[in-house]
Fold each of these.
Amino acid sequence: MKTFKKAIINFLISLAIAAVAIFIYGIAGAGDISYTRNTAGGYIWFTDAPCQMKQGYLTMYSTGKGGTLTFGCWTMFEGSDNVFAVWEDGQTRVYDMKYIHTTDYGENKSKKNM
């Protein structure tokens, strides 16, 4: 039971950090359309806000233990089942869509675009 409570608390802390980050980075009104767990004990959140670091990409951010927050940019290429990401430190990563979960916001946005 303690593990479950700790997981809930960590999740809520991650959401609070994300809310502050969205406010600071000026992407208010943007929504988290999908997410996945990361190896730092937090989440990677993919938003629908244009990325200020890379034209044509969207903003993403990662939360971790101890309140760490990292920003990056993401995109998908037509016909691909992967998300291509560029982090603010220059690292590039590819994330398989089968591990990425759509939020309610993302589902609703997807239905509106059909």
Amino acid sequence: MTNTTTRPTAPEPLVTDAPDTIGLGSARSQQAGHSALISPPQTSRSASETIYPPSGARRAGADGRVYASIAHRQAAGLEALQSLAMPVEAVGLDPGVVELPASARRRLAIPLPLVIILTVQAVLSARFFHANTAFGDEALYLWAGHLEWSHWLHGMHIPAFPTWFSGSPVIYPPIGALADTIGGLAGARVLSLCFMLGTTCLLWCTASRLSGRRQAFFAAALFAAIGPTLHLGAFATYDSMALFLLALAAWCACGGRTSEDATGWIIAAAGALALANAAKYASAIFDPIVVAMAVLSAYPQPGGKVALRRGALLPTCLTGALAILLRLGGPWYLTGIGLTTTMRPNGGVPIALVLADSWQWTAVVVVTALAGVALSILKGNARSRTLLIAALAAAALLVAAGWALSRLVAWLRPRYAKIMAMTCLCAALIAVAATGSSQAQEMVNWPGAANLIAFLRPVTSNGGRFLAETDDVPEYYLPQTSWRQWSNTFSITLPNGQQENVGGRPAPYARAIRQHYFSLIILSFSETAALDHAITRVLRATPGYRVIGIVPYGGPVPGNYTVWAYRPHAQHGAT
């Protein structure tokens, strides 16, 4: 017998008799009071994949349509809700997240070329973290920083560092001492590397503002590749900090270049310059360059009186800041500035040798920067732009050099010519980096003190007073001794802690030796060779002093430390 019940050729979609509370039904159905048909979004399912309940989960309504059970309606609604989750996440509707505009995200992103430059710079400098023991200046500033902390925290009496430091003893030395406490000498050198990497970043940003990304690339790459940069990245002195602050001042000076009111930027530049000058007094020679950048970067817009106001505001704020710092520091700082910077005596090194070394280290930058000035003149740039490039070239700054290399590439019209030029210049940068790394290696080849410190540690453990040609390194490596115990061939530390500046005269040392004031004397016949020979003659003529060790050292000119000790009960076997 034939079944007269007609089955549909395709099952109908499920029908719910509950209101559409999750937004799956059509608005018209809700307004009309009808039940909503559950239809999963077409973006996630096709029409042939419509959800149907199993055979036992359906019931017939009065109108003959098939309705879903409660359990299946819940499962279907959950799956439909999950299908809508992906678009919501992509749009970013989380109320707890504040989405930055695309322009802001681009400004915060670090360009890949800059990342590569910083990585190469860090790797090349890091090779010198353990290349040698502390240089005299490194030992001096780190040792002074530790004493400054002892003075601040415990009230300990310390030497009058401001009277003979070439930078403020309360700016870099305490910061370097903190890094030294955490990671030793290598930690202090890592701090210098951080300052130099920050300088590279600021150079990139300044060049980008003044010229563009391509100029910034060449400027930063040149800076990161030359020998002095790699050396200062592994040299624990105030130089890297002062350079970072100068770069920060230059960046601030150009910060509001197109704005009518850049007062905040100019004040920030003055503050950074004041800190740089305080960290290293000699950095003041670059102050006019930063002032020129503040003025010339304002042309052509807004130009005129606005640029001149910036040129007047920056030196005024800088002078005021320095005056406040000197007032807080007191007369000792004026004495130190005079002795170490403005009225410093000639060190005996010929000027020709200084210029030759400077040319060897920075020739590639100077030549390229001067080429940038010439290209700007030939191209017929505005006078203000040419003057800005000339000011940067006068300071051998990398912005002018980067501009020159960038213009060289920009003048080439065909695309393949630009690609070839960029490839050749990048290859040249690799050669510059190789040369710079070799130069940095030569800069760390000073006489090592490892053998000397190992020899002195046991003989200084019983107290006494010590005379060393350069006492900075022993004082840094032998913290069990006190600064009151050490004298050098420039000054004698008296029992009350005051220092007698002998000015290179042998008479005070002869008098102290005859009175057996020093129990240990270390001479290397290098920095003050004439005085060392005079002291040696006195030692040989004074009973009780004898040579207890000849300690070798390396370096460009290998030699020996001669260690004398006062041993009155030992046979006088002076050599």
Amino acid sequence: MLNSTVVHVHVAGRSEAEWPTSVFELCRRRRPCPVERVFMRWSVFLLLGSLLVILCSACTVAAADDRPRLLVLTDIGGDPDDQQSLVRLMLYANEFQIEGLIASASGTPGELKESVTRPQLIREIVEAYGQVRDNLALHASSYPPEQELLDRIKAGNPYRGLDAIGDGHDTEGSRWIITVVDRPEPHPVNIAIWGGQTDLAQALWRVRNDRGPDGLKRFSAKIRIHDIADQDKIAEWIWAEFPGLFYILNRAPSGWDMREAAFRGMYLGGDQSLTSREWIDTHVRRNHGPLGALYPPRTWTAPNPHSALKEGDTPSWFYFLPIGLSDSDHPEWGGWGGRFTLRRDRLYRDAHDRVGDVTDARATVWRWRPAFQADFQARMDWCVKPGGQGNRPPVPVLEGDRSLRVLELKATPGQAVRLSAAGSSDPDGDKLSFHWFSYAEPGTYERSVPIDSPTAETVTLNVPTDAAGTTIHVILEVTDSGDPSLTRYRRGILQVRGKQIIGHGQTASHRGVYEIVLHGRCDNLYLTQAADGSQITSSTRSTSPTAAR
């Protein structure tokens, strides 16, 4: 009797055609006795219960995996701003899956008298993090154990450039990059390059050499790169050798003052008092535990007069930090790590924002400095304050949505669009204030759009009548009343229905008006010939095309 029940459960779920004839006949002809029926019911309940536990566990793992995967290459050991950036990153270790901390060639080319990597400097900071980790965990979850981070510190190549790439140049760091990217994870690996790219270039070379073009293509599709300054001067070579990479080059254009780069908005422009020695001594270095004590107090910041906080590499990982303001798939939208414009296939360069009377790339970073410095201050407090005493950020809600994702909303020209932050909350019970504004530069409607009562919880935005076929980005800032006041964000993108006429032209052979109707983004539009082969002169402006006629 028990044997027949075991066989019955074993074949459940298979079609009758697949069952052995004798088993099928047994199950069809024979009616189970009451004891067997009870046994079978409990077997089903236990099976369903086991499946539920497995599904719940899978959901928990999936939720943890939603944190961005981050791998850092740092030239730590030269300019001390790398140590500064790493101290700050440790405070945000709970917001990422930190997959690797790779010590590449120390310093900028020619800065040091020796070719060396200094992973021990990374280890020192991670060990200091370990001393405050339990206190950080009183204020936020998911801070990784110290040993987990120590295990992910790797040494790269002490040499740099094309002569250090190819056969015989694999390093612990380049091999680790391949290991991390090869993991069967659903999310991309975000690679923040603080120093040189040589170890990444070696990993790409090795994959292409061992796996061929198709293997390289699959590998490259799983990474996103944010490169500070092309320090090893091989970016152009990387783009040519490994086309199609998602690559942000955060650097001033050739021939410009190098201090015009977006990343330098960490310490240049805006309120520079937040970068002073007094500020870092008060809020970071003194009375904030062993991690803050390792924050270097002095570095080169000219023309910033303070020579203190620099952190030129921090925007590379700020870019991937999930705070509701940005989307890592869209460099053109902007956030704490800057804003970037598409130059060619998946290659992005610095964009410019206008803030007050200033228009430059640095403004795409320093415009957020009051918020990210307050956040830094609060997390340094978490290192020493008991649970319940450190301020935690608010939780903004946009149109009932409690996630951090960017919302896409439909609108029509002339429509009064109602937007609500109702339901926003603060984990410490602090009062909340609201600030709504239209962020003109990421959108394709080129002017700022006023918002009625922009400090109210619920506001109205009147879509301009000439906005058909454009996008309007609306930012919600929610700030708490704690000490320091902390800000989190939501972004909504209004997709305005309709077609947009962006230019007119006439041919040399006959006069006439030709409408050019586009949707999406186009920085340059050149029209030279009509369908009949005659020349067209055209007026153009930046917009976003998906179709033209």
Amino acid sequence: MGKIAIVFPGIGYNCDRPLLHYAKKIAAACGYEILEVNYSGFSNKVKGDPKRMQECFETAYNKAGEVLKDIDFAAADDVLVIAKSIGCSVACSYMQDHGIKARFVLYTPLEQTFSYEFSEAIVFTGTLDQWADTQVIRRKCDEKGLPVYITSFANHSLEIEDESLLGVRGGTTADANIKNLARIMHKTREFTAREGNPNLLQNLNPYMASWEYVPDGEPYVFGDRVYVYGSHDKFGGNVYCELDYVCWSAPVKDLGAWRYEGIIYRTGQDPDNKKETGKLYAPDVAKGSDGRYYLYYAINTCNHISVAVCDFPAGEYEFYGFVHYKDGTRLGDKKTDEQQFDPGVLYEDGKTYLYTGFCAPGDINKHGAMVTVLDSDMLTILEAPRFVAPSDSYSSGTGFEGHEFFEAPSIRKMDDKYVFIYSSIKYHELCYAAAESPTGPFSYKGVIISNGDLGIDTYKAADKCAYYCANNHGSIEKIGDDWYVFYHRHTNGTNYSRQGCFEKLEVKHGEILQAQMTSCNSIKPLRAEGVYPAYIACNLFNDEDVTYIPWSGWMEDKYPKITQDGSDGDMLNGYVTSMQNGATIGFKTFMFEADKRIGLNILGYGEGSMEIRFELNGPVIASIPISGENVWTYRQAEEVLPKGLHDLYITFRGSGWSSVRDITFS
């Protein structure tokens, strides 16, 4: 009988409206026969009226019975349901009642949809859906283990109506809705065609989508999910933190299943930034005694710490107030106040401990990181700022020498110790200090991670930079039974397109050992089978020893970089480009369960070969000849790679340049 796709429209959203129209085209292109269940005769003013809603449900259900009664579903190779709104409930109910096994594409389902039994589905909803509570839909999807894709500020048609909600990306609602529709259809096509790459379900760095740029990550476990809050860079951006705050989350038990939670706070929501001339720099979040979530942030054009609040970890935050002294003076306005920057927060026993600071090397006017104690209202200062970690101008004899405070203060409690995490004057490293009290005194302990792997000597010299780096910002969190460090890497050859990564930590006798950058989050080796995107490279360098990306502008084209096509926000996978003579990309780590051949998808005018090694300075174990390619072209090595646990290094030797999109083990 072949494959059948059944379309169940909404009450006022027929099969020719955009979501269903394009979903039908996708299904038809994938070989499905399209069958529409069209219904009419609904009551007016249905929303909010349970009786009329039930009448509509029964009308639609009966119509479905008329249309589908003669279909032999048992003979079908595959049954795909494409449904909208009340059609989602009707479809799930009908399939359950008739014992029909189906897969479901559910656009803006109503809450009652989830009372039915179904397992293989993909869900789309908007944060301004008038017919369903986004938080309830999130929770229901979590309970059923379903992927849910959220469109910020979208209504029940998954369209944005209010242009003022577009934020700093700007444009028109038409532009935004076309781009959002493209994203939704991209995911619809993957699900419909079963195009998903199972390798991408493993633990990978970067852990968010390759087209997302969220640095400065602050991870927190709330309930059974881990949420990450950070600033928001732009692909091809010209400065830091150009976009609104977004949130991503994952189940505590599956750190490979990250979900985009949408925009949680817009740049123009702060009363001091209505014209959106300032940028939302790195934030942090604390849960207060009232059960609400408080978002602390700084705008780069102001010397204040602002606070927003929300009832949910990943809801839409509203401005709450400014951190201030008891007389109402804002923190940062007193002559004795040093720069308020990069807030890190810890709520404990009715008090909030707020850590701030920025100390450029050599600046004698900056003494170090500060802690300010706030009252239970999360705003009012109880104890004025005191210094907890020194700048390089005031570090002599403190034990912080060589790793003095630069920026990015963060705080966690590890057993009975308070751990202060920060970025040092070396920029690329996250260090930590420990104390018995949240206000100190703190003692320097060591480096947690470097986003250039500097200090790691297990596969290279300790002073060899193995990934072009610049600033670093992040924190640690206990997820399940283990501790993890979240940090960021730099892409596109610039400071301004940073991506979040994380690694599992090794903690011995209360001491954190420096983590190594990997492609697999230091959790479990990747399976050496199938296809992997090149953007998961954790090493990126050439024969010329260079550590830092320029603080302004971009690296020269002679240095390899991870980039993407299109413009910011386009759901296009990243790849490695500017592979010139001596350029190396490294991946850690693969488990070869059997002998494998390796192949690469190549583009560009390189003439030479890609050398494959298991050790950075080890012998060449395979070679892939390449020549100028005008389109992405697959090239495979003749040599066989032996089974075992291996790191992988790919070095281009030759003339010209090439790009690498993905790696295939076969």
